[in-house]
Amino acid sequence: MKQRLFTFNFNNPKVWTLLFVTVVFVGDRIIGEVLKYTVQKSQFRYSRLYGKTAHSKYILIGNSRGLVFHSPTIAQKTKQKVINLSYNSMPTELACALIRDYLEIYPAPKYILWEITMLNYNSKKLIANFTPYQSSQNIGPLVAQKYPKLYWWCNFSHIYRYRGEVFLRVLYYMFKNDQNWVLHQEGNIQQIKKSIAQIESVTFRADNKDLEKIKELALFAKSKNCEIKLMIQPLFPDFVPKVKNLQMWKEKITQRTGLKIYDYSQAQFPENYFVDRVHLNKKGAKAYSQLLYNDGIFK
């Protein structure tokens, strides 16, 4: 008796469903690998971090106010490699994960400068945008903890990891350096003053859980012979008196973390150095970085 060969019945919808699912799955994995390669080759700060090309003497981090650590000025003055890992609206948990990843990948830097007012503006939404880097030892668990469904979908579909603002930054900085990322324009001083005048008072916040994470990270950094310096960037002169609990806020952070705060909030920079009440423009960022160098922050 002749052995009957197994054949597909191409008129069977189940066969077409199987072929479709197979093509989609394989295509997802292939395109996912292409996008992963794109992320790895970008000049974007986090691609450099995980691509092992970010070895630096000084690490800078914070949210949008951390971007005013002007890396080119600091590198020029110190004659050392510098990388700024700050990002708009970065939460403390994400900053801790990035710094821990850095310390686990590279030899320890001399200092980590941390713009600590990020504690007062602590949105978690940015974490969901860091799925292009979720294969890291600290980013992946953080995404899984905060967005478990998203983490599951990103494992199911590798393409889905590469969506959102962070991936667009990856593409934008594919072939150019991103360390000059700071607002260039001068703010409308009259509008800034008017907006501040309408504020009765401001109370800075610091979540105890975030402070505990910074403390743990500081101990880990110390074990690597690296020091974390907490910084407060200059604030618009009229805005400083509006922050009613600044001294108590600083004392709480130092008490909880054991770290000194270098407070430049009242540096009295010219008003045209600001974009708004809490952000320096490029001119102010350069002056601030120069001031830090003159004060021996990098020694």
How are the elements arranged and paired?
Blueprint: H1 13-41, H2 45-50, E1 58-61, H3 71-78, E2 82-84, H4 92-105, E3 111-115, H5 139-146, H6 148-156, H7 165-172, H8 189-197, H9 208-223, E4 227-232, H10 246-257, E5 261-263, H11 282-294
Protein name: SGNH/GDSL hydrolase family protein
Which features does this protein show?
5-stranded parallel β-sheet; 11 helices; 44% helix; Rossmann fold; 5 strands; alpha/beta; 299 residues
Walk me through the structure.
The chain has a single domain (14-294), classed as SGNH hydrolase (Rossmann fold). It has eleven helices and five strands. The chain has helices at 13-41, 45-50, 71-78, 92-105, 139-146, 148-156, 165-172, 189-197, 208-223, 246-257, 282-294; strands spanning 58-61, 82-84, 111-115, 227-232, 261-263. The protein has a five-stranded parallel sheet, sandwiched between helices. Strand 1, helix 3 and strand 2 (82-84) form a beta-alpha-beta unit. Helix 4 packs parallel to helix 9 and helix 5 (139-146) crosses helix 6 (148-156). The termini are far apart.
